[in-house]
Amino acid sequence: MTTTLLTEAWPVAALRVTEGDLELRFADDDLLLQLADLAVRGVHAPDAMPFLVPWTQGDPAAVRHGFLAYHWGARAGLSPDAWNIELAVLVGGEPVGMQSVFARSFPVRRTVETGSWLGLEHQGRGIGTRMRRAVVHLAFVGLGAHDVTSEAFADNPRSQRVSQKVGYTPNGAHRTSRGEEAVEAQRYRLTHASWLASERPEVTIHGIEGVRRQLGVPPG
């Protein structure tokens, strides 16, 4: 009896994006457990909250449980109409964080949004900028996006600096809620034309054709 490979049944599992020693790849369960432990060790200062959903709060067991449940749900909910691809970020083979890319009605709108986090022990080394550049390459070259957006709270200057370094421009601000607190968030946008005009590192994408089929994106 022939057994179907996961990468055949679920093509996103074969996705890899590499830039030098940095790699974005499908997060299987082993990687998710390693990343959950990394998150438990710290993602931000105790008095900060850079996320709309405060998933880093709670005891270690609660953080791990919520982390795994969220990522399993993101896998299960993937469809051409609405998808969220959560990619593990590895540097030199070591898991250091996660980079997400998500969209709604992508075959029509051709717009994606990105989100990310890095373990505290890996911050301040330029990894955030590298992983954003890699996922932007995936969006434009791999998926044929027309623009890429991002958003950060006004009190999260690190995330805003990453967007600015990669070439995004401000695209409006709005008020939102973070728990019981009203906060301002800044939107950013990067168009395909602006990205083409910028200096870019060499990035390689593996397994993209199967991903395009799974997401209902016309062949590149």
Automatic annotation (TrEMBL):
Residues 154-180 are annotated as: Disordered. It comes from the Bacteria. Residues 33-190 form the N-acetyltransferase domain. It comes from Flavimobilis rhizosphaerae. InterPro entries: Acyl_CoA_acyltransferase, GNAT_dom, Ribosomal_N-acetyltransferase. This is GNAT family N-acetyltransferase. PROSITE patterns: GNAT.
